[in-house]
Amino acid sequence: MNIGINLKVLRKHFGNSQEEMAKLLNLTRSTYSGYENGVAEPSIHTIVEISKKYDLSIDTLLKEDFSKIPENDLAVFLHKEYDWSGKKIRILCQTISQENEELIELIPEKASAGYTRGYADPEYLKVLPTFQLPFLSKQKKYRTFPIKGDSMPPVTEGSYVVAEYIENWLSIRNQCPCIIVSKNEGILFKIVDNHLQDKKGIELHSTNPKYPPFFLEAENILEIWKFVNYISADLPSVKPDEENLIETIHQIRNELSEIKNRLK
C-alpha cells in the first residue's frame, strides 16, 4: 500500500502544507504527518475522505506509486477524470494578423451575450474587432471584455478589461481579480478565491461591499482570464489620504497660530 508516499506527492503537487491537509481531513497535524511518514495507517473512513478530496478512486490511491510518475505526466494523470486545470476543456481559438502576430480580440458589449456560445468558434471570433498592445508579453494570450454594473469599482460600467488567459486554473492565487466566463452567469469580473481542490469551485467577491460573495462550481466555468489592465473613458475619483489630510490640517492650524502670535 502506497498511501503514505502518495499523500506526500499529492500534497506537494497541489502546494499544500501538512497543517492545511490535516485541517481539510479533520485530523491533527501529527496524525496526518504519521500517515505520510508511514508510522501509521489511515482508517477506511479517512481513506474514503482523501479519495473524495483528490477526486481519485480508492484503488488508484492505494495501488499506484505516484512518486514514480514524472511531474508533467502526474498532472495529466491526476486530472484525467475531471480537468480542474482547464487544459482539456477546449483548444483556445486565436486571431492572427497578416504579419503572423497574435491579436487581442475585443468583445463588444452587444456581442458579449453570445460569447458563451461562440468563444470556441473561429467564425464568431474572426468578426470581432482586434488590436495590439506592444507592452504586453508575446508569450501569453490576451482578450478584452466589456464590464457591466457597479460591483467592481474603480472599474466602472462601460469599461473594458484586458485579461490574460489562464490555462491551469489550479495556479490561480486567492484574491486574484479575474474575468470568469460561465455557462449560466455569462461574463463575470470578480475577485477569485480558489477552492477547486477542496470544494471543486471558486468563491467570487466584489470590491463593492453591497454585493455579497457567491460560490461558482467548476463544472459551470468555461474560461478564466487574469486581470491585466482596463480601458475606461471615466477618470476614477481620487480621495485624499486620511493621514495626509489630518497632517495637512495640523500644519494649517500651526501656521494660523503663528500668524496670530505675530499679529499680537
Describe it.
This protein folds into two domains: 3-78, lambda repressor-like DNA-binding domains (434 Repressor (Amino-terminal Domain)), CATH 1.10.260; 104-231, Umud Fragment, subunit A. It is built from eleven helices and nine strands. The protein has helices at 3-13, 18-24, 29-37, 44-54, 58-63, 71-78, 109-112, 115-118, 122-125, 196-199, 242-263, and strands spanning 104-106, 130-131, 142-146, 160-165, 176-182, 186-195, 201-205, 214-217, 221-231. A nine-stranded mixed sheet has the order 2-1-3-4-9-5-6-7-8. β5 (176-182) and β6 form a beta hairpin. The mean pLDDT is 86.
Write the layout of secondary structure elements.
Blueprint: H1 3-13, H2 18-24, H3 29-37, H4 44-54, H5 58-63, H6 71-78, E1 104-106, H7 109-112, H8 115-118, H9 122-125, E2 130-131, E3 142-146, E4 160-165, E5 176-182, E6 186-195, H10 196-199, E7 201-205, E8 214-217, E9 221-231, H11 242-263
Parallel strand pairs: 1-3
Antiparallel strand pairs: 1-2, 3-4, 4-9, 5-6, 5-9, 6-7, 7-8
Helix pairs in contact: 1-3, 2-3
Task: Give the gist of this structure.
The chain is of the alpha+beta class.
Keywords:
264 residues, 34% helix, 9 strands, Umud Fragment, subunit A, alpha+beta, 9-stranded mixed sheet, 434 Repressor (Amino-terminal Domain)
Mean pLDDT: 86
Give the low-confidence spans.
none
Strand order of the largest sheet: 2-1-3-4-9-5-6-7-8
CATH architecture of the largest domain: Ribbon
What CATH calls the topology of the largest domain is Umud Fragment, subunit A
Q: H/E series, N to C?
A: HHHHHHEHHHEEEEEHEEEH
Number of helices: 11
Q: For this structure, what is the CATH class of the largest domain? A: Mainly Beta
Rg over alpha carbons: 25 Å
* Number of DSSP E strands: 9
Helix content: 25-40%
What portion of the residues fall into strands of 2 or more residues?
15-25%
Total domains: 2
Distance between the termini: 92 Å
Biggest sheet character: 9 strands, mixed
> How would the global form be characterised?
flat
Computed structural class? alpha+beta
CATH superfamily of the largest domain: Umud Fragment, subunit A
